[in-house]
Amino acid sequence: MKIATWNVNSLRVRLPHVLDWVVDNQPEILCLQETKMVNEDFPEAEIRQAGYNVVYSGQKTYNGVAILSRMHARDVFAGIPGNDDPQRRVMAATVGKVRVVNVYVPNGQEVGSEKYRYKLDWLVKLEEYIQTELGEHQELALLGDFNIAPTDRDVHDPVLWRGKVLCSEPERKALQALVDVGLNDSFRKFEQEPESFTWWDYRAAAFRRNRGLRIDHILCSDSLYTRCLACHVDKGPRKLERPSDHAPVMAEFEG
DNA sequence: ATGGTGGCGCGGCCA
Hints:
Number of helices: 6
Strand order of the largest sheet: 3-4-2-1-14-13
Number of strands: 14
């Protein structure tokens, strides 16, 4: 069973890439972020045609998340319970025995900004939510665009990025606190190529020069992590015409 | 090199 995440930066533009990718890779579950479209515009028919069920929580211009799944998704919930936020950044669903929580963590813009404060506050709310979800589900995956590079080896130039948004200590501590609730980074279970990243700025030929960050993650509860057999970044779609600035990440599980 | 690119939507915000 394969579970994947991909920040598509507009599903309207990236739909052909997504359809090709699911046909080629056949994930059981694919979580999308930054769909950037209202629910009325969501390309549900095209996705169903490719053999996937889909649930989505959209908004105009910004944010928007969706979960594609081979099997029916049940107990679907959009947002963080009790946190009434118009920004569509979270969606949970149960597929088979696995609870999936798809997140698009706020970017934070700049350390010290209002958006940065919002990001840190948001991560505390997410942590409380995940704690509750872990109490109810043995097999849980928290995956998506976290907008945080966990350590310096997830950064192409740690000196340049030191203390900057996506790499600052408060953000890393917030991510660690989330992990400490009972999660594991599936990517780091395995030997990986050095300089493995998931996002590259569109500017300054960052992808060609591999000047990226690893900010998209698949975090697993202990019992799911034990069954994790592989985890990879697929740089293929980032090489296509009009790519997303993020590459998909996919983990494979026993059973 | 204090910029650069891309999406949305048509000026400026956001990443």
